[in-house]
Amino acid sequence: MNSKQQLDTLQSRRKFLTNSGMGLGTAALTSLVPNLSMAGTGGPHFAPKAKRVIFLFMAGAPSQVDLFDYKPNLTKLFKKELPESIRGGQRVTAMTKGKEKLIAPTKFKFAQQGESGVWMSELLPNLSKHADKLCLVHSMNTDAINHDPGKTSFCTGSEIPGKPSMGAWLSYGLGSINKDLPNYVVMPSAFWSGRVNVQALYSRLWGSGFLPSKHQGTSFQTTGDPVLFLSNPKGIDSRVRRRMLDTLADLNQKHYSEIGDPEIQTTIAQQEMAFRMQSSVPELTDISKESAETLAMYGPDVEKPGSYARNCLLARRMAERDVRFIQLFHRGWDHHTRLPDNMKGQCRDVDQPTAALLQDLEQRGLLKDTLIVFGGEFGRTVYGQGQLTLDNYGRDHHPRCFTAWLAGGGIKGGIHYGKTDDFCYNVVEDPVHVRDLHATMLHLLGMDHSKLTFQFQGLDQKLTGVEPSRVVKEIIG
To answer: Quick check: 120 and 113 in contact, CB under 8 A?
Structure first.
């Protein structure tokens, strides 16, 4: 092909992209319009029970045996081999393969809490006061047995990296209800008490995958600007920044008219959002006007930027401002050894702030339309690892059953759902796969998971994938 033919081909391609891309480009601009929620599928499929989600992700996988799933008969089986009939040939990690699987009952006491009598561990005294708000799903299960695929599956619906995250799907499907803040915010804790076996967090866990990039999560930082490069450089004031953005928008629009790439419109929209965030984010993260009573409710760590407690308070402030999806990551839950000591520290980190978040939302009338979800990537084995005594033990990864809890946003409170066997090793009633949890979350937000799709690589892609999944209607009030 000679140079003239190449130029003609390029011009034809540009013309095609310009004509075919304008519709998508217009959709990308909707984030500039206040209160317009017509992205992706065009808003809810039916009346929602919740407007927003706060997802409390306990990275590393908390032990359900020590926190939520009460098995009192295990005490008499200390150091007994887990029966092969219970194991059923299930795969185990390389850390356990070929080793004895000796039962390690929890050392912590359980008690029934609230009017509903929900069983809770002594490790969560503050959260236990809100037992009547909680739906504990004991029959959670997943396919992943190691951390990275487990977290990736929980956050994106697939063990394969590169798929859109939960928050990105919601942003795509429902659009924004706040023009001055990101639709999807992520806040990882900067520190935690369990300093062992801490895995990295990757931005793909809150990425947009094949969806337009404007739907990816915005990660808040613990030092400096809450969002990277939010402040103007020295010598640049807001008027100069405004003129610069206007000029840049003109150039980008010219570029878009030439090639029709909808990501250019996303860039324009995100630059405008960044300009508005220069005012909205500092106001959001300034907690100096919170009352002394509110700060005390979240506990002493609320004064430390980057703490789980501070992030819980910020999550409430974001809920007030109608951020659609708020995700907190708290690491340090991977307890293969010295679980009792490490669990005490981790629970101190999260117990009081989580309880305060529930109370704070309820007091402000926000809990009824805010869905709270608490869980990790999988569960923990009933058999021990490391030194095994009544007071000192660890637990391996266990994907076949674990506990997550939900509250607010249309969820029935004060109930146990699903059941595990006497060894907390297999689900025996009402299994709930991670896909089912995703389908249920979408349903509460007014979305049919089977209709929230995006065509990519010849497939109508979904958060719940191609495997069967169901809405767990029994836990919905």
So the answer is: yes
Q: Provide the 8-state DSSP code for 233.
A: P
Helix (H) or strand (E) holding 136, with range, is: strand 135-141
Environment class of 122 (CB within 10 Å of its CB; exposed 0-12, middle 13-18, buried 19+): middle
pLDDT at residue 25 is higher than 60: no
What tokens does 210 get?
Answer: 């094949």
Nearest to 373 by CA among 291, 434, 303: 434
Instruction: Pull the structure tokens for residue 165.
Output: 């995250």
DSSP string, 143-165: S--SHHHHHHHHHHSSSSTTSPP
Q: 10 Å Cβ neighbour count for 92?
A: 18
User: All domains of the chain, ordered by start, with CATH?
Assistant: 37-234+288-475 (3.40.720)
Is the distance from CB of 404 to CB of 62 less than 8 angstroms? no
What are the backbone angles phi and psi of residue 379, rounded to the nearest 5°? -110, -160
- Predicted confidence at residue 11, as pLDDT, reads 42
CB 152 within 8 A of CB 205: yes
Token pair in block for residue 473: 């209607």
pLDDT at res. 227 = 74
- With CA atoms as reference, report the closest residue to 70 among 338, 424, 475, 414: 424
Count of CB atoms situated within 10 Å of the CB of 468: 10
Which residues have C-beta within 8 Å of that of residue 192, sequence separation ≥ 6?
198, 308, 330, 331, 332, 345, 346, 349
Residue 232 predicted with pLDDT over 90: no
88 conformational bin, left if phi > 0, alpha if psi -120 to 50, beta if neither? left
* CA–CA dist 378, 392 (Å, integer): 22
Q: Residue 301 corresponds to which tokens in the numbers above?
A: 């760590």
At CA 332, angle to CA 326 and CA 337, rounded to 5? 150
* The residue type at 77: L
pLDDT tens track for 194-215? 877 788 899 999 999 999 988 9
Tokens representing 31? 């984030």
DSSP character at residue 424: S
| The model's pTM | 0.86
Whole-angstrom distance, CA of residue 356 vs CA of residue 452 = 33
Rounded CA-CA distance 184/156 in Å is 14
16's CB contacts (< 8 A; 6+ apart) are 260
d(CA 472, CA 248): 48
Residue 147 structure tokens: 């951390």
Q: What are 410's two structure tokens? A: 């249309």
Q: Residue 302, by phi and psi: left (phi above 0), alpha (psi -120 to 50) or beta?
A: alpha
Helix (H, G, I), strand (E, B) or coil at 138: strand
Tokens 């931005």 belong to 203
